[in-house]
Design goal:
Elements (H helix, E strand, L loop, with lengths): L1 H16 L4 H9 L9 H17 L4 H7 L25 H14 L2 H14 L5 H4 L3 H23 L1 H21 L15 H27 L6 H20 L7 H16 L2 H10 L2 H4 L3 H26 L14 H23 L6 H35 L8 H20 L5 H21 L8 H17 L13 H12 L8 H18 L6 H20 L12
Amino acid sequence: MAVQTSQRIKKKIERYLLTVPIERAHQVLRHHALASTFAPGEEDVVRTCLIEFLNRRRPNRVQRLFTEIFEPFLCGDEVLLQNADGIPGLLPRTHVAALWDQLRQEAFQEMVTGVQSLISRMAETQLLEDVLKTDMATSAREAMRDMACRHLETVFAAPDRLQGFIDRLARGVARRTGRAPLTERQIATARPVTRQFLSLVMCVLTGTEELDLALEEFWARCPNQPDGLAGAYQQGKLLARISYSASHHLGSTDGDLSTQIVPLLVLNLQSRYETVAHFVRRTEPRQGAETGLIQDALLGHLTACRMMLRWDFTATLNLDDRLRGATIQVPDTDRERFEHLRHRVDRIYRALSLAGMTEDSRKARAVQYIWNETLEFLGTKVITAVEGRLPPVLSGRGEGTLDFDDVAWLVSYLWRWQKMSVAFETYYPRFEQMRQHIMDDLERSVEQAMRTGLGETSEERLGHLVRLNRIATIFDADILKWIPISSQNMIDVVTARLRSRQPVSADEQPLIDGFAQLARLELRKSRYWQSDDLITVVALADEADQRTAASAPVAEPGEGRMP
């Protein structure tokens, strides 16, 4: 009877756990809420069921014990993992997992079996996180660290053996990349395995404590947002001192890597481009020797952003199979990602300038090539897709307005890239050609909207003009320069909108205010003859302004003053 009750409780608990977040099971177990909820005989059954359920999600227990050494230094940045050319100082999870498989077979195969049985026996009554913190687990981790270091030292000592080890490791990375991609989108190619990666592994294995202390000291003394260039310069000096002191404690087969590992980790884990740029610019030979790997990492970050931008735009806009004039849809999540990439490219390029890489003829060519490749993709693929969709969108009839917001955002996004290229003194003519084509299409669309007999109400016509004006404001212009002040259609549209006494929207406000201002200027030109229609427009606009001012909240006495 007790066995049946136990099985019934276990099934009930497991069904419940499948419907709630995992954190809820941890909270129940950690806060000892079982005694007040279940009977004394049921408490142990529920606790065992929770532990079994939580530990079942982590089958690779000994692997976790070893890979925890690298956990603080593993990179989970989806953008950087797209760069198949490699970034110095980067530790991808796929590589570390493949390294574990290789070392388990060659370095500590016999030890793994014994440790696995001990951990499994302890995990029957404890959470795996608690088991991995016990003295037994700590001793096993240090033993595996020592065995891994000795094995890698023998591998580095023989060039033929080193190449064979790298080849086997590369095959393991390829298998893991194809079986379980790390990111939401499939990584196109597996990152290569190099000698530098193994040197970085040796740096971490031999100097984990020193690296932890160095990174903690840097992050503790550096705020998330440095106070201008002065703050970044101070961070760079601190980084140089930490890097210099850490290089004396790290055993490495690559001397350059051991002197630059701290800045590389800061760059790859936290993307502090400005700080690392000042470190490169100001580092003296006696403080950090060469900074070539850091410069390569900065270029690698720029390349990774270009690759990710190309991947995302191709997938979002379906550029490979796109038909001219097809609807454009850019979800909000994709917009945030595109804005993040653009902002990141901006930061990286400024960091490259701060580091002096745009002044060095050798590095400048590489920077210019990556930047030109990015602009070329946007100019040939993305702009072509936008221009193919613009005619039905600007006509404002039928299904043309369904994706207007997406097209307007995309035009604005592309024009921000133009402003970036001008700021970096890398003029790209395709953006200016896009602006000229759009302005020409806008002029034709405005002329068509002003014609009579289109069968539209004044509200529909105003909405059409507002959409056209939104596109024009992207280029710091407006459509009023194409609408004569004597246009009776425009006068009727504005008058009907103001007489409705409904609040004017933010999109309508610039167009109505601009036309009312043009009407005021026209009335001032003639003292003896004035249009009654323009007088009506000005009077209604003034009345609307008074209503807006009257409805605005009144500040309390003393509000906004300093105490």
